[in-house]
Amino acid sequence: MNPKIVRVAGTEIALFRIDGDSPPGATELVWAHGWGHSHREMLPLAEAMRRSARSVLLDMPGFGASPVPPGAWSTADYADMAAEWLAGLPPARRVWIGHSFGCRVGLQLAARHPQLIDGLFLLAAAGLRRQRSGLEYLRFKMRGVAFRVARSLTPEGPARDRLRRRFGSADYLQAGPMRPVLVKAVTEDLTGVAAAVRCPVTLIYGDRDTETPPELGRRFNALIPGSRLVLLRGFDHWTVLTDGRHQVTQRLTEFLEQFA
Question: What is the pTM of this model?
């Protein structure tokens, strides 16, 4: 599948279209991947929806075939980029389907540019601060303090790299030039953004997800007026996209019925 390269917001994005067998006027699906992924992880789901909807899949700036954005973008910057692209398309009903990081961008898009998106279908949505027990919170804070102290005593070079490997997450270690974007994303709190969303929203979580646990879904569900929360048994943050594909497409088909 060859991408179409579009220049928006001072950067380029790679787009992958699936026209499929959907009837004229069918809702268009916009697929936004998670951190460290590309359109490829969303492609099997989009292919499964070929008969009922047209799809366009994004490689967001810094991922897949799209170059790194021109700065330390926030999720609001990603949403504004998507809005600039969507505003240039022919009018149509559009639903944003995101996974994890793609959900952060979708929430920002729906809150900041509500005229451009008709619904959100969010898989393992991130963007709220994790609720931790007292002991968990203490351990988290102590680890952060230990890292900052050790970093202040360690010169840049191999020793600092070893320190990052010891304390950094896998995403942080692998982020490379995207590290400033990652740091911004994981420190954002989208509570106010979620509360401003007014379009139809379905939230899908796996009950074994430890990256974005179901308690985030319950809180998003309480924040977003009229949203629906679906908990899929036996799936985690990643298998909801693979082993959970049939259940996800079933819920998505049900979600799209309101736009027919």
Answer: 0.85
